[in-house]
Amino acid sequence: MRNNSIRGLLKIPGYKITEIFKKTDAEIHIRIEAHKRNRSICSGCGKSHGGLHSVQEMIAEDVRLGERRVFLYIPKRRYKCPTDGRIHTEDIEWIELGARVTKAFGRQVNRLTSITTNQEAGWFLGLNDEKVYRIDKAMLEVLFKTRLTPTPVSTNISVDEVAWKKHHRYLTNVVDVDKKVVTWNAKGRKAEVLNRYYESLGSENCQRIETVSLDGARTYISSTTDYAVNALIVLDRFHATQKASKALDQVRRDELSKARKNENEELIELTNCKQRFILLKNKANLSEKQSVTLQRLCEINQPIYKAMLLKESFIGVYDLKDEDEAVGYIYKWIDEALNSGLPAFIEIAWSMVDKIEYVLNWFRCKRSSAISEGFNNKIKRLKRMAYGYKDIEYFKLKIHQHCGYLNPRRFQLN
Predict the structure, then answer these.
(1) Residue 2: pLDDT above 70?
(2) Taking CA atoms, which of 19, 94, 197, 308 is between 20 and 30 Å from 322?
(3) What is the domain partition of the chain in residue ranges?
(4) Would you say the C-alpha torsion 329, 330, 333, 334 has a positive or negative sign?
(5) What pTM was estimated for this model as a whole?
(6) In whole numbers, what is the pLDDT of the chain averaged over residues?
(7) Residue 169 neighbours by CB distance under 10 Å
(8) 52-65 and 68-80 as β-strands: parallel, antiparallel, unpaired?
(9) Among the ranges 191-195, 311-315, 318-322, which has the highest mean pLDDT value?
């Protein structure tokens, strides 16, 4: 194959091939140089100027030709910049600055890491994990600046946290419910964290937010109330169901503990962790055997039976037709929960006294934050695949890569 044909495949504008000095079944090494008319750009000031200091050859990997890895040997010119008086290397538009790979190769790495782990992508490309990490992070940082700076404006959002590390280390994620993408994230889950999101939008864009779906966290509510003054705050059906299920499971654990102390073998068998899904499952989806087990459990244990009824009635509020009907229903449920003697449901009842307005908002707009929980599952899977992330900033970028505007499968790379 002629050098001009290879040059066309490599896409190295402004450069020509001088020699192919090494070629094996696995690799091909090519030396190139700039055309005489090619004007170099200083990486310091971004302009073309004189003051050549030296020339240093660098090696950059490019996308494969067939099954061969391609290594380009490039003489890079260094200039003394008149702007700051420092020595800067020329900026080549198709080279990823500081990564020793071409931008085409960087895009290939980025596409691979969006569907598999860095370790597996490195094995496929013949790179070590550290180099894949550096290339991928550099690519994502550039994309972040072009696509997520400034913060994209959303009309309907969902806010939720996800654990990124043990010992209650959390990230706050903001999801655009209409576009189904993560638009912003930050370390922590305090009100100050979400404040930064609203401040990045600006006062005018905050006023355009119509609904904010969340799990009822007081920190998120206080921040949203201060900034998104026109938004309806919605405690949606998903999180309400989740809270009721957790309360029911807490009652099960309490009764299991009592049964073990009393050596009640039948109750231990019916309330152990293997049976907990029978309590949490929708009654309509229970098998015949599971229905019999549940019925027997309710017969021999009054607290669990009472908790089952409270859970079902609590979820039932979302089956009502309108807001007026829901108001009386909720207050009646609060009275029942407070008089139940079950600490887990008493806690929910007191929280409902303060947040009843946010439950009623669901009848006004029928918005849900279930999409945030879906993304949380993807994020947890991403974390498990990588066996955790030491670099929190890289983890935030990876969330955008898999769940947001940096996803090459949904949004074409520049």
Answers:
(1) no
(2) 308
(3) 1-93, 156-235+370-403, 237-355
(4) negative
(5) 0.85
(6) 89
(7) 12
(8) antiparallel
(9) 191-195
